[in-house]
Write a structure and sequence with these properties.
Length: 459
């Protein structure tokens, strides 16, 4: 028995070592390997026109690092016109893909290149199990659906103010750019100067302080957080799903369920730095019951009285007021008005209108939702910001042309006989009729009627 134990000892240690390595390998496989694709032209103009900020690629990359390993990073743009962004791309090890526009222009050139490269990586790199698309363009919806068909996890990073709501709801998780902004003011990164500017620069002693120059371009404060009552219906629905599955609702499982129901959910939109802080706020607001300790919390619903007492308006209930304002200022909107002007009109005509009541942090986010409902049409402009025009709802399609009523059938007249000498539509002045010839009988000859004898053949 001792010998057997001695022989099994090394085998057991080897088995334990193999089991430990297997667990590590499984953990490595469970961890996401993310490939990042940045549509720089779209995200840059979207952030600049809606948030009045400069796009900082380090913010979405930092948020994606919390979700997995970044194994590839690509950004698509005409970098000859984006010299100021090349430095921050190089500092974050983002591979810049040059897109040369054709003479006729190629509005969707970057979209096609990005989609083709992403699909090629999905086919050729089996270890890449997650993709992140940094853009707000709804043209990427087919790409997102195709990647999900191949079992890939898809993240979308964009602003709530300019990312299509359809794109937000069809990915696995939507990371809003607004939630990545820090509280207070944030310095905008300065573009790299040209060689001529560096040659014409004064000495360091004569130049003003760099911080003083940067303070001239500061980012505004982060949008105000939403009320917790806006998130309670989603929390309650997720808890109901877990109850039907007979699963104990813990923190991580609750958040994953909430993301399945609403990929655009973010606890930072409610002023929480983490999901545990978000749950603590719900507990203090008497929305849920929390039990347990040591990081193992169990969340339970308060009961059926929570939703009835705390009614939350839906986003579509804010559209009728917007329609009234658009109809009132229809003449001004024909040429396009800025989002700031439209917001002032809303405050003037509806002083009690509050965006957080309907789940929106900014007015541009509300307009983005209205654009998906065909109420308005938005065009980003780098200088003026968002330009608002009337949507397709105010220009209904023309009614289809009705087929003409069939005329009553007329009896077809029989063709009239043509009589010589009578006028017709073909010959208004016909020639006079020819005189008819009277038939003349031939007189019989003298021997007519007399039968002549037949001649006989000679024998």
């Amino acid at each position: 028995m001792r010998e057997t134990r001695q022989e099994n000892g090394p085998q057991r240690r080897a088995f334990d070592a193999n089991t430990g390595s297997g667990r590590k390998r499984k953990q490595m496989q469970d961890r996401l390997s993310i490939a990042v694709f940045v549509d720089y032209d779209n995200i840059e103009i979207g952030v600049k026109s809606t948030l009045r900020r400069e796009f900082d690629v380090s913010l979405p990359l930092g948020a994606l690092k919390e979700r997995g390993d970044l194994v590839a990073k690509f950004a698509y743009a005409n970098w000859g016109r984006q010299e100021g962004a090349t430095r921050q791309m190089a500092e974050n090890a983002v591979q810049m893909v040059q897109r040369i526009p054709s003479p006729r222009g190629d509005k969707n050139g970057a979209d096609i290149n990005l989609a083709l490269d992403a699909l090629e990586m999905a086919f050729t790199h089996a270890h890449v199990n997650a993709f992140a698309i940094v853009s707000g363009d709804s043209d990427f919806i087919p790409l997102v659906n195709k990647l999900k068909e191949y079992g890939k996890t898809v993240f979308v990073v964009g602003g709530k103010a300019f990312t299509s709501t359809i794109l937000q709801q069809n990915c696995h998780e939507f990371v809003s750019y607004e939630s990545l902004l820090e509280d207070g003011d944030r310095i905008v990164p300065q573009p790299m100067p040209d060689r001529r500017e560096r040659m014409d620069r004064p000495d360091r002693q004569d130049r003003p302080d760099r911080q003083d120059r940067k303070d001239k371009k500061e980012r505004g404060p982060r949008p105000a957080p939403l009320e917790l009552s806006q998130a309670y219906p989603l929390v309650e629905r997720a808890l109901q799903v877990l109850e039907r599955r007979a699963v104990q609702p813990q923190l991580g499982l609750l958040k994953s369920t909430m993301l399945q129901l609403d990929p655009a959910f973010s606890e930072r939109a409610y002023g929480a730095g983490s999901f545990s802080d978000f749950v603590d706020k719900l507990k203090k607001a008497d929305f849920i019951n929390v039990s347990g300790s040591g990081g193992r919390y169990l969340i339970e619903r308060k009961g059926s009285g929570g939703t009835s007492e705390k009614f939350v308006p839906r986003p579509e209930e804010a559209l009728p007021q917007l329609r009234d304002v658009l109809e009132t200022h229809r003449m001004e909107l024909e040429e396009g008005a800025t989002a700031e002007e439209l917001e002032q009109w809303m405050q003037t005509e509806y002083p009690e209108f509050q965006l957080p009541k309907y789940g929106f942090q900014q007015f541009s986010e509300f307009l983005n939702y209205a654009q998906d409902k065909t109420v308005v049409r938005l065009e980003p402009d780098e200088e003026r910001g968002l330009i608002v025009q009337l949507g397709a709802e105010f220009y209904p399609p023309a009614l289809p042309a009705q087929a003409p009523e069939p005329l009553p059938e007329e009896e077809e007249d029989e063709p009239q006989p043509i009589v010589e000498g009578q006028p017709t539509i073909f010959e208004p002045n016909p020639p006079p009729p020819k005189p008819k010839k009277t038939p003349t009988r031939k007189r019989p000859s003298a021997g007519a009627g007399v039968r002549r004898p037949r001649k006989r053949k000679p024998e």
